[in-house]
Amino acid sequence: MHLYHLSLQPPTAINASIVGNFSGGRRQEILVSHGTRLRLLRLDADSGELSTVLEQDTFGSVRSMAAFRLTGGTKDYAILGSDAGRIVIIEYDEKNNAFNKLHQETFGKSGARRIVPGQYLAVDNKGRAVMISAMEKSKLVYILNRDAAAALTISSPLEAHKNHAIIHHITALDVGFENPLFAALEVDYTESDRDPTGEAFYAAEKMLTYYELDLGLNHVVRKWSEPVDPRANLLVPVPGGQSATTNAFDGPSGVLVCCEDHIMYRHMERPTHRVPIPRRNDPLRDPSRGLIITSSAMHKIKGGSFFFILQSEDGDLYKVTLEHEGEDVTELRISYFDTVPVASSLSILKTGYLFISSEFGNHHVYKFNNLDEREPVISSTDYPSNGMAQPSSPLPPSFFTPRPPLAQLTEQGVDRPDLKILLVNELSSLAPVIDSHVANLKESDGEAPQIFTISGRGARSSFRMLRHGIEAPELMSSELPGTPNAVWTAKLRDSDEFDAYIVLSFINGTLVLSIGQEIEEVTDSGFLSSTPTLAVQQIGYDGLVQVHPHGIRHVLGDRRVNEWRVPPGTTILAATTNKRQIVAALSSTELVYFELDLEGQLNEYQDRKPLGSRVMALSVGEVPEGRQRTPYLAVGCEDQTVRIISLDPDSTLEVISLQALTAIPQSILIAEMKDASLHKSSTTMFVNIGLSNGVLLRTILDPVQGTLTDTRSRFLGTRPVRLVRLSLSGTPAVLALSSKAWLNYTYQELLRFAPLITDYIEHAWSFSAAVCPDGIITINNNVLRIITTADLGQKLEQRSLPLTYTPRQLLAHPSEKLFYVVESEHRVLGKDAAEAKLGGPSKLQEFNDERPPEEFGYSKAEAGQWASCLRIIDPMEWSSLPPIHFTNNEAAFCATVVPFSERPDQLHLVVGLARDTRLAPRSCTTGLLRTYLIKDEGRVLEHLHETEIDDVPLALMPFRGRLLAGVGTALRIYDIGKKKLLRKCENKTFTSPVVKLRTQGSRIIVGTAQDSVFFVVYKAAENRLLVFADDTAPRWVTSMCMVDYETVAAGDKFGNVFLNRLPPSVTPSVDDDPTGSGIMHEKAILNGAPNKSQLMAHFHVGDIVTSIHRVSLVPGAREVLLFTGLHGTIGMLVPFVSKEDIDFMNALEQHLRTEGPGGMGAGGQSLVGRDQMAYRGYYVPVKAVVDGDLCERFARLPATRQSAIAGELDRTVGEVLKKLDNLRVTASGM
Predict the structure, then answer these.
(1) How far apart are CA 66 and CA 182, in angstroms?
(2) Is residue 1159 helix, strand or coil?
(3) How many C-beta atoms lie closer than 10 Å to residue 933's C-beta?
C-alpha cells in the first residue's frame, strides 16, 4: 500500500504574526505563521480588506518570528525560530513573489527540545542584534550588519547561557544606539533539584535579568538581575534612547513586567511602578482566579508619545501609558479599552488598524475609532510608593464594567465615545476543528460531498459546512419581460473605466439597457432591435459593433452606422470579436474576416475561407498591448475538430494546425493567462474548448508556430459547456457554464479551477460598474442577476451556524438529514447553576443581554464546573432546534444513535455524560448513559432513562443491535431495558482510557488514549470480548477509521497519520474460532495480545488529526482518506493505482528534497532549513507515503531546474505538471 498526501486546505490557526515593510516602500504588510506555513497579508488602508500576497509551506514548525530593519534600510527582514535547530533570515522578493533565505545558521539538533533555542526571539530596536532562546538554559546572540556590498551579514553566535535556568520570556530593550540590551525572565532550579523535601521549589525566585552585548569587545555579559513577582509571564519593551537631533529622550526605556493581577514597570537604577490589572465586575466569576496578560502591542504616535495595548486571557484590551521626564518614569496608567477575541498576537499598523490573530475562530481586523482613556483610569501614583510599598502583597483589586454590546453601540453611531475600535474585516479560520462528517446532502446533479465540521471554543464555536468552490454573492436581481438567449456588456469608448450598455438577445429581437443610477432601456444606441444578436463589441476608440444573423453593424462614435450584409441565401451562424478584429462563420461553411484600419473603418479581407464543415464555435484572443491584431483564430467544426487558422497578413485564413475531439465543440475561447508553472515571467495562450458532452478541454497554443500541445480535460457537468471571457482585478479569467458554473483564474501566478457557489447560470458576461468593478451579469430563464466573486484564495466556501459551548462530537442521523452536536464547557457555570447564583432566569437573561457571550465569552468559574447541552441541527434549513441543557454539573462527552434489536422499529440516542468531572487526574462522582427515544423524524428527543456508571464515558458506538461503550479503561456492551441500560459484557484489560471505537461485523477496533489501537472480537456464544491483536508502539490516538476489515487508519496527538494492518493469517484463525478459547490460550507477545498489527504507512502531517473518513470526494472516483486537523487543516491520503505512479512520484519527491528556495540547498524546500524527510518522519520514519505538498512545489521551481528534473525522470515539464494536476483533480476535484 502506497499513499499520496495532499493538503486541501492549509492550517488556518495563527501562532505568531509580525508587521513590517517587507516589500519595501511605505506599505506595511502582516507576516503570519500558521505553524507549518507562512503567509504574507496586505491590508488596504481605505477599506480594511486583507489580501494574500504569498503563501508558502515551511516543511517545519515555526515557533517564533521577529521583524527587523538595518539602520538606514528601506525594507524589513523576518527572522524565524523553528524546530530545525537553525536560525533563518528571510526577505520577501516582490519581483518573483517569493520568500528568499538570506542566512541559515545551525546551532543545535532538530526538534522542539527544551534546551535547543527557537522558542523565543528578540531583536534589537535598531536591527543590530538578535537573541534566540530555548525554554531552558540556552540563549544565543547574533550580530546583524552589512558588508561592503550592503548585503546583510550575520555573525557567529555568542553564548548567553545560564545553567539550570527555566526561561519564561525574553525581549530586547530599546536603548537607542547604546550597546544592545536584552531582558529575560528566568527561574533557577538548582536548589529545587537538590532539595528532597520540595520546599526549595516554592522558595525559588523568578529573576529579571539584563544581558548586554558589548559591540566593541564582541561578547555578552549579564549586566543586572533582580527578583520579580514569581507569577510574571510576559515582558513588554518600553521605548527609549535619545534623539540624534534634539537630544530629547524617546522614552524611559526598561520593560513592563506582566504578572498575575499586576503590571510593573522595571528598569535598572530606576524606581519601580506597579498597578493592578482591572477586572470585570462579574458576579459569576471565580474570585480566587487570577488574571494574566497573554499578548501585547506598542504603537508610537507622531510627536513622540506612545501607548501599549495589552490583552488579558478573558479577551479584554487595556490601554497602558507611561508619563516620564527624560529617563525617569513618573506615572504608570492603565484603563480598560475594549473586548475582542483572545489573540495569540496583536499587531498595530501605522494606518490605524489593529490585527487580531485569534487563538480560536476567525481572525479580525479592527480600526481605531477613539483612543481616549475609558474610566476608571488606574495610576501608580494612586498607591503609596507607586504601588511598591509592600512588593510581596497584592494591591487592592480594581473593577470595571465592560462596554455595551456592539449591536447597541453601532445603533448609536461611531461618534459614541464607548466605541473604541470598529470591526472592518474578518479572516476566516476553521481552527480548532474538533470533529467532522462528510456527506452529500445536496440533491443537485454531480454535486460533490460537503464537509461538515464543528470548530471553535466557547460561545464563538460554530457548525460549518464546507463546499469546494468560490462564493458568488448576489448584488441585484431583476425579472425580464422574456427569456434572453445571450447577454453582453459594452463600454462606449476604449478609455472608459466602466460599462455603459447591457445588451440582451432574444429569439426575435435585441434589447439595449443603459447602466447608470438606474438601468433603463435605450432606443438610440444604433443597434438593430428587430433581430437577435450574435456578438457585441466595443471596437476602436469609440465604436460599437453588433453582429446579427444577417450582417454586421458598425456604430461610430457620432452615431453614424456602417452595415455589412451577408450574401443572399446565407446567414451568420457564429462570430468572434476583439477590439480590432471580427470573424464571422456563414451557413455556407465560409469564414469572413474583418479588421479595423487606422481610420477606424472595418475592412473585409478579400478572400473567404471555405472549411467544408459547419462551424459550431470560433474565437480570437485579445489584441496584445502595442499590436494591431492577434495572429490566431480557433474554429470548432461539426466534424469534431478544432482548427487553428492564421490571421497574419502574410498567411491570412490558412489552417496551421488541427486537433480531433471526442465530441462536437459547443464553444471555444482563446485566453492569455499567467501560469508560473509554465512560464515564470510571461503569459501563456490557452485554447479552451467546451464540448457538447460536458467536458472542457484546455490546450496550449504555441505563440510562434500555432501548434496545440499539452491538452488537459475536465468533466464539468451533464450539459454542453459555454465559455465566457472575464476580467477579475485586471487579470483575465474564463467562466465555463455547464450544469454548474466553473471559474478558471490566476491566483498567486498559478492557474486555479473552481466552481462558483451560485444558482444555475444559462448565460453570462463580465460586468463593470462603480459599485461592482469585477462583477458577472448572468441570465437564468427570465431572471437577470449581477453577482461578484468573494475571496479567490479560498478553495472551500464556508457557511457557519453558531453554537453555545465548545463542541465535542458531531453525529449524523442514520437516515434523516440531521446532525446531533454534543457541547460542553469547562470552568463555566451551567444554565441552572448560573440562574441560581444570579437569582432566576430573568436575571441570567438580563446579564447575557448586557454581556453577550459571543462577544465577551463566558465568566470563568471554579475548576470542576461544567456547562453542557445537546443540539439538533437541520443543515437543509440551516437552522438549529432549541438545545437540551444538562443540569446538576453534568458534562456530555459523546453520543451515538443505536437501533436496539430489542426494539427494531425505534431509534435511540444515547449520550455519555459525567457529573463533577475533573480533568487532571480524570475523575467524576458518577458517569451517566442517558437514553432518548428519537421521534418525529429525528427532531424530537424523548427522555427514557439514564444508567449510572463508574467512570467517564468517552466513546459510544452501535454494535449488532446493542450499545458498545468505552467507560474509562473498560469496554462494555449494553442492551436496552425498561428502566436503564443492562450491562451484558465487559473487558477491563485496557490500561488507558478508551477514546475511539469502530466496528465491522463482530470485529471491534479500540483506540486508546496512550496505547494505540487494539483489535477486539466479540464471541456471542461465550459472550466474551477478546483482544486478539494490538500495536507494537504506544500511540495517543485522537481519531480513527477502518479502511477495510483488516486495516485501520488513525491519527495521534503528535500530528502523525498511520495505517496498521493485521497479518494475513490472523483473520481466518480468529473468525473460525467460535468460542475464542484459542485466542485466550495463545501466548502473549511483548506482554500484550497474541498478535501484532503491522505498520503499513506512516506520515507526519504537522497537525493534530481530529477525524479521518474513508470517502469519495468526486462522484464516481476512487475512495480516499480525508482527515481534518486541530489547526484547521483539511488533507487527504490518496492510494496509488499503479506501480509506475509510485516509482515516478517517489523519484520526483527525491529530486525536490534537494531543491532549495532562493538557491540554498540545505533544508530543501523548507524555509526554516528543516530536512523534509526528517520532518515527515518526526517520530517514526516516513513509510509508504509521498508528500504531495512537496511535489507540487515543482510548479514554483525555476524553468531550468524544472527541465533538469523532468529530464532525469524521462518526461517533459508539461507531462510532470499534468501528472501532478491529474492526481489532485481525480482524487479531490480541486
Answers:
(1) 14
(2) helix
(3) 14
**Are 315 and 342 spatial neighbours (Cβ–Cβ below 8 Å)?**
yes
DSSP 8-state assignment for residue 249? B
Query: What is d(CA 753, CA 746) in angstroms, rounded to the nearest whole number?
Result: 9
pLDDT in tens, 316-358: 999 999 999 988 999 999 999 999 999 999 999 999 999 999 9
pLDDT higher than 90, residue 415: no
What the block records as the C-alpha cell of 999 is 466496528
Output 688 or 625, whichever has higher pLDDT.
688
Secondary structure element (H or E) that encloses residue 1067, with its range: helix 1066-1071
Q: Alpha-carbon dihedral of residues 1124, 1151, 1169, 363, nearest 10 degrees? A: -30
Considering only 92-96, 272-276, 735-739, which range has the smallest mean pLDDT? 92-96
* Owner of C-alpha cell 521549589: 201
β-pair type (3-9, 1185-1187): parallel
Amino acid found at 1081: H
In this structure, what C-alpha cell is assigned to residue 736?
A: 465555463
**What DSSP designation does 380 have?**
G
| Secondary structure of 145-174 in HEC code, one letter for each residue | EECCCCCEEECCCEECCCCCEEEEEEEECC
Contacts of residue 110, Cβ cutoff 8 Å, sequence gap at least 6: 83, 84, 85, 1170, 1171, 1174
Alpha carbon distance 1034, 1180 (integer Å): 12
**Residue 153 · residue 129 · CB < 8 Å:** no
Residue 122 near residue 83 (C-beta atoms within 8 A):
no
End-to-end CA distance of the chain: 24
**Across residues 215-233, what is the average pLDDT?**
94
Whole-number Å distance between alpha carbons of 669 and 750: 19
Distance CA 738, CA 715 (A): 10
So what's the pLDDT on residue 856? 95
CB 986 within 8 A of CB 964: no
Integer Cα distance of 745 and 731 in angstroms = 8
411 pLDDT higher than 70: no
Residue with cell 498595530: 348
- Calpha distance 663→715 (Å, rounded): 13
> What integer pLDDT is reported at residue 729 of this predicted model?
85
Whole-angstrom distance, CA of residue 1143 vs CA of residue 1141: 6
**In the predicted model, what is the mean pLDDT of the chain?**
93
pLDDT tens column, 749-779: 899 999 999 999 999 999 999 888 899 999 9
Can you point out the beta strands (E) in 162-214?
Answer: 165-172, 181-188, 206-214
Check residue 259 and give its pLDDT: 96
CA distances from 785 to 473, 504, 719 (A): 10, 13, 21
Residue 120 burial by CB count (10 A; 0-12/13-18/19+): exposed, middle or buried? buried
Cβ(511)–Cβ(787) below 8 Å: no
Q: What is the pLDDT of residue 491?
A: 93
pTM attached to this predicted model: 0.94
pLDDT at res. 1159:
40
Grid cell for residue 1072: 473460525
pLDDT in tens, 268-287: 999 999 999 999 999 999 99
Q: At what angle do helices 841-850 and 831-838 cross, to 10 degrees?
A: 100
Looking at the chain, the number of H-run helices and the number of E-run strands are 13, 92
**DSSP symbols for 775-838:** EEEEEETTEEEEEE---TT-SEEEEEEE-SS-EEEEEE-SSSS-EEEEEEEETS--HHHHHHHH
| Percent of all residues in the chain with a pLDDT value above 70, rounded to a whole number | 98
CA 171 to chain centre: 30
Query: Side chain identity at 642, as an amino acid letter?
Result: V
- Cα–Cα dist 848/793, whole Å: 37
Grid cell, residue 698, equals 484546455
Instruction: Sort 308 into a burial class: Cβ within 10 Å, 0-12 / 13-18 / 19+.
Output: buried
Residue 839 and residue 846 in contact, taking contact as beta carbons nearer than 8 Å: no
